[in-house]
What we know:
By secondary structure, the chain is of the alpha/beta class. It has helices at residues 3-18, 47-53, 71-79, 92-103, 128-135, 148-152, 175-181, 186-206, and strands at 23-25, 36-40, 61-64, 82-85, 107-110, 139-146, 165-168.
Amino acid sequence: MNLSYRIGWTAFRAMFATYFHWSVFGAKNVPLQGGVILASNHASFLDPPLVGSALNRDINYLARESLFRFPGIGALLRSWNAVPVDRDGGGAAGLKAILERLLAGGAIILFPEGTRTKDGKLQPARSGIGLTVIKSNAVVIPVRTFGTFKAYGRNHKFPRPKKVAVKYGKPMHFETLRAEAKDCSKPRLKEIYQQIADDIMAAVAKLEPNED
C-alpha cells in the first residue's frame, strides 16, 4: 500500500468499526498475492470501501471516468488504485485497464449485477463479469455485503449508523470453461459468459453473515 492508500484504508476501517460496528467473515479466503476478482453484490456506495478495507492487501476499484477530469480528485483516485470506466463500466478502455491490473497480479472489486439494487434484494448477474473472467487468469472470490442498503441505500442522502458486515466466500476457479472458450462458437461463448456470471451470483447468494 502506498501512503495515500494506507491513510484512506485506515480511515475507512475506523469509520466502519465505530460508526457502522462492522463484522468481517472469511477474509482469509482472499489470497494475499496474485490476480483476484472480488465479485460482490451492490447495495450501496459503501460496498467498495467496505469490501476493500477489510483486507490486508491493496485493491483496485472502479470509478467513473468523468471524475478523473478534476485534478485533485483524479490524483486521489489514482493513488487509491481506481480504474477509470465509462458510466456503464463496459467500455473497451475500461475492460483493458481491468485486465491489465489482474494480469499484473492485482485484486479488483467487480459487481456482477452492474448497478446498485433499488430494493435491497440481489439482482440478476450481467454477462460482463463472465467476459472478464475468461479474459483473465484470476481466481474469483464471491463476496456479499450485509446492511449497507439500510445504512446508505439509494433513498438515503446521508449514511445512517446501521450495523454492516461483509463475508468472503471460497475461491472459484473456471479453468474448464476458460479452456472451452478458446475454441467454441460465438453463440456458445456468450453462453459461457452468462453461465459464469450466474454461477458467481449464485455463490454470492449462498453467503450468510456467520463465521462458517
